[in-house]
Amino acid sequence: MNDLSPDLVPKFGFSQRLIEGARDQSRVKGLTHEFYRYPARFSPSFVRGAIEAFTRPGDWVVDPFAGGGTTLVEAMAMGRNALGIDISSLSSFLCEAKTQILSDQDVSTYERWTESIDETINMHATSDHHEAYADAGYYRNLDGPEFWRLRKAIEQAISSVERLHRQQAHVLARCVVLKTAQWALDSRKTRPSVKAFKAQMYKQARLMLEAALEFRDQIDGLNLAVPPRAISLHRTTTGAESETAVTDICPPKLIVTSPPYPGIHVLYHRWQVDGRKEAPAPFWIAGKLDGAGSSYYTLGDRKNPGLQSYFDNLKSTFTSVAAMAGDETTIVQMVAFSKPDWQLPKYLEVMEECGLEEHRLWDAQLDDEDGRLWRDVPNRRWHAQQKSHAPGAREVVLVHRKSGA
Ligand SMILES: C[S@@+](CC[C@H](N)C(=O)[O-])C[C@H]1O[C@@H](n2cnc3c(N)ncnc32)[C@H](O)[C@@H]1O
Q1: Which of 87, 89, 214, 405 has the fewest other C-beta atoms within 10 Å?
Q2: 2-101+228-265+302-402: which CATH topology?
Q3: pLDDT tens digits for 320-332?
Q4: Is 71 helix (H, G, I), strand (E, B) or coil?
Q5: Measured between alpha carbons, how far is 12 from 80 in angstroms, rounded to an integer?
Q6: 72, 93, 99, 297, best to mutate for ligand 1 pocket (most atoms within 8 Å of CB)
Q7: Atom of ligand 1 nearest to the CA of 88
Q8: Which is it for strands 271-273 and 81-86: parallel, antiparallel or unpaired?
Q9: pTM
């Protein structure tokens, strides 16, 4: 462990930004962040703080557990380039939807689609049943008669989206359907009427266009000679360092991420309908395919003794993260633990085994006893499942560099 590394001292003044960002408890909002409620997404102000502290415009920022794409959006909005990697195909869909810069032609196509929502969703008309998805089980827990109206409305909305041949308009419109369906189905006990679904979809369509245009204006306003770009890879981070898209941009200045947390159950890949029944519908609506069970998305089975599979997977992914880093790369993570007493030391041990050395920048500015930046977790679903004041209800920011860098 290296307190106040000489390398990082010149940036010490900037670290105040990271502290402010991490402590900011405001809701996730602005730009395209609200296109989807991705489970356990981190706050844009935290990422913004890290980006400001450790990078300049034109630099590359990597998020090896990109999730809902918060890092990619913030990086581009600040004129940095971003690469996101995630094992979930839903994540790559969201990263694309949130970071595309709409052309005027796509805006016109999309607006025409928006105006057709009223006639698209019509219970007296037919809908295309998506046989392949239904046969593969993607309608699970939405196949009962009580869901037929919403199912039909979603099928009709997807069919209308699939008729859009301009790629960006298609992706944005599909994301509107996804967001509206999440609103209608996920974590609620009652179902909205079709009329309410339609009104919500229209409202979302307008809000999301405004957000996408705000994102475009923000980037235009930077007046950069070369506009920033985002790349999203759908794959495991293990081994990703040898992909051309990754070698082309490595080493980045900053790797900022929030990996799945040890021992904390988060359903990244399911909605909870009718109480707690798990539905794989988001993949069907996004036009993507699901992976292989919840431990596939959480780095391992939390019932595995000692979280062995979690820590093995943490090691293989962070070995690859370390291989992407150079001597000038700072690695910033936001993590929480169900049992911090043994999991935090074990976590740090794995980081060391991967060739990463912890830097505690904060001693002079923090009142946290261990010199790390801890924060209470606002409004997270997994947090609500923890007992109040349980240690898992707090997150910690960890800063690493390559050992000896
Ligand atoms: C806590 S979430 C990241 C949330 C993100 N920071 C945001 O703001 O939306 C963790 C992500 O890690 C992804 N993941 C799990 N195992 C992975 C692996 N082996 N390689 C890459 N991504 C993985 C999950 O699919 C999930 O999206």
Answers
A1: 214
A2: Rossmann fold (3.40.50)
A3: 999 999 999 999 9
A4: helix
A5: 21
A6: 297
A7: 25
A8: unpaired
A9: 0.94
